[in-house]
Amino acid sequence: MIKCIGICGKCGRCENAAMMSGANDRKTKMLAYPKDFRPETGRKGFGAAFDIGTTTVVGMLWDLEQGCQIAACGRTNPQNEFGMDVISRITYCGEQTENLAILQRKIMDCLNEIIKELCERAGIQRKEILKITVCGNTTMAHLFAGYSPKTLALAPFAPGYAGTLVWTAGKGGPGNGVNLGAELGIAEAGIVLLLPNIAGHVGGDITAGLAASRFLEKKALTVFIDIGTNGEIALTDGTRRYACSTAAGPAFEGAAIRHGTRAAAGAIEKVRIKDGEVFFKTIDQQPAQGICGSGLIDAMAQMLKNRLIKKSGRLVCADDVELLGLDPKFRERLVSVGKERQFVLVPREDGEDIVITQSDIREVQLAKGAIAAGIKLLLDKVGKSACDIREVMVAGAFGNYIDQESAVTIGLLPDIERDCIHFMGNAAGCGVSMALVSDRELEIMKKVPELVEHVELADQANFQEAYMNAMRF
């Protein structure tokens, strides 16, 4: 028996299933579809929707006749072996002509694995899948479709294609002409559809997220943020709509951090510091192995509140404890290794201490500064300031685990009324599913690039000043 898993709200007898954010990672919250979303029903067969991220790929299987989601799962993007960020993969594509095909093959293999698992869970054959919708950041979309992404690394960062791409009924198609329907083993009469990008580094995942969050309908000053290696930001004042991309870097994904790790068992995900003592929580309550993004944001916020980090981002040293009137217990945690200052989060007798280094703090400053500067410059476009913002929508599975107060404390999110900050979860996954099961929603997404004006931050005269100011805590 095929059951709705509760994500679309179609029935009251749902299994308590949730989408995986990646292999062996934490489960994310269920997708939060807008209240007015109504899947179309009565169509034959099944459909699959994919959100292809730089780090994680998520797939969702829908019963098109019933209009309900019946399975979901995720995988780590296997293209990681060619670089953890989009620039590394773009560079790899430029090294040899055959490398584009290698990266495309990697993502096809990943999607095929996901489709196999989805079909096994639902008890169906993959030939029963009649439609696939896909979204991803602009680089991931190029690699999926077989377009060279080389132009995305050079100003003016022009995409290799525009609009919505479709592969139909047993034929080749856009990009390098590969028949993607055949590659994915779906019905011969099936179609594969790739949602449109907004600009060179504002991709179809943001198109999907803006539609799913009903951003286009907002009348008050609203900011939409998708936090990742590239931090995409959109802003509307009810009349004008702008979007930009910031190079936030991989710090919030655990990369470029001394003891950073992905959100897996043993990763520190929450940190509190009280009376000179450090308290932390790890995923699955396993022994601490490192610190993931949400834990890193918590650690920075707690260290700021306890005056262990100065506004400039400078980590205090043991000699500052008495001078600044800090708790004496901090003295043994503030150490120097060579010329680098460190704060010991977790001392370990059987291994290397888990620490926050001065370099880690700088990485966080760069990441949060890029996002904060992007918000500032989009606010400038409409002549507003942060105090005028009426709603902040934080998209991405990562947002499910960020402590709101910690994010505001370090300056990652604007300091506004906390009940005006909403975490959307995987808005891209929502949107690409909505495009799968509703022609009305698909038509809205096709128009998003025309309705949102892209702002290239590097071209803004005050970008460097805004960025440097935003790096301060």
Give an overview of the whole structure:
This protein is an alpha/beta fold and 473 residues long. The protein is 29% helix and 21% strand. The protein is built from twelve helices and 18 strands. It has a six-stranded mixed sheet, sandwiched between helices. Strands 17-16-7-8-9-18 form a six-stranded mixed sheet, sandwiched between helices. A hairpin with a 2-residue loop joins β13 and β14. The termini are far apart. The N terminus is likely disordered.
Task: Summarize the topology.
Layout: E1 46-52, E2 56-63, E3 68-76, H1 86-95, H2 99-122, E4 129-136, H3 138-145, E5 165-167, H4 180-183, E6 191-194, H5 204-212, E7 222-226, E8 230-236, E9 241-247, E10 267-274, E11 277-282, E12 290-291, H6 293-305, H7 320-324, E13 334-337, E14 340-346, E15 354-357, H8 358-381, E16 391-395, H9 404-409, E17 421-425, H10 427-437, H11 439-451, E18 453-454, H12 463-470
Parallel strand pairs: 1-4, 4-6, 7-16, 9-18, 10-12, 16-17
Antiparallel strand pairs: 1-2, 2-3, 5-6, 7-8, 8-9, 10-11, 13-14, 14-15
Taking the sheet with the most strands, its summary is: 6 strands, mixed
Shape: globular
**SSE pattern:** EEEHHEHEHEHEEEEEEHHEEEHEHEHHEH
Number of helices: 12
**For the terminal residues, how far apart are their CA atoms?**
54 Å
Q: What's the average pLDDT?
A: 90
List the keywords.
473 residues; alpha/beta; six-stranded mixed β-sheet; 12 helices; 18 strands; 29% helix; 21% strand; disordered N terminus
